[in-house]
């Protein structure tokens, strides 16, 4: 016992207290910088910034897989792009597989939009254009017949077409609902939108988890300071100049690791010595679900974007054909008693041509109300409610994947960045306190 006391007395007598006390402060500041700059690496810049290097693409192809994941490297670029925007398409895929697919089928989303309301809106928007459409088609397909018809008869045809419009539109919206699973692919829609709008992916992370991200930066100082205490004791005990940079690597790596753990782990609530332990992000699942649902409903799965996908997506031809098929019977009903006479006058093939032309011309105008931004905003509330409810019901482990899975494979870059900054902080401290490179701090 006396030997221990003597050793402690000698140790205290020879300790450089300024150096010892400065190390935890140093590691605390470095920890804060590590987490702050780590968040910058996650989100910025939105687009790749750097230079293209000839031959780098070929070299990157033989590098270890993890090295190939560095943004820009596989494209022959030397520079940086935020990890999250660089993985925008990947996050879109995971968002569908892990989250959106569990929130509801395309049919459920479509049902939430109230197809009857959509049908009423289509009729409202389409009806004023219908007379011009009939005139345009008839003058194009059979101008002489249309010109020779008495004005009251022409008006009667237009009136009959307009009278058929609500029923035809109802048939179209019902048909879309029946076949929506074949016409709409949420995965392609979401992936394409995220890839084209990487800033939206950044917004998802920041709006949903900004509070936790801010805490991660603040705790960078706390973790760094606490880890710096044993580092300081080891450093002033052994007096080896290279020890501090090496321990800085461990501190930097561990600081980032603890920051990620603080936010995401453990997913399920646990009690340790009576204390509630759960990832900070998971504690606000209901609140985060509301924010996430608003972003998805306002910017990703909207009536406007559904309309664009239905008409211009990879299955757009099928949608157009389906709508045109539903429109053709309206021509027969509109012709009414004149149908037989018209068939005789112009022939069955010409009559069918008029029907086909009218149907195809009407396709685009029928779907246009889907692209009405104001109407889409009103309908978005229904999608938001559905997504929010389903997101709140997700098990914690599935919920946390919504945020983390897209970057999980790239977290090693953050840890490596922390290790490099920790080593740099160690060398800086040695330069100041051991080598006397800064006046006032002699070696």
TrEMBL record:
Keywords attached to this entry: Membrane, Transmembrane, Transmembrane helix
Highest taxon above the source species: Bacteria
Keyword Ion transport: no
TM region positions: 20-43, 213-234, 240-264, 412-438
Protein name per the record: DUF445 family protein
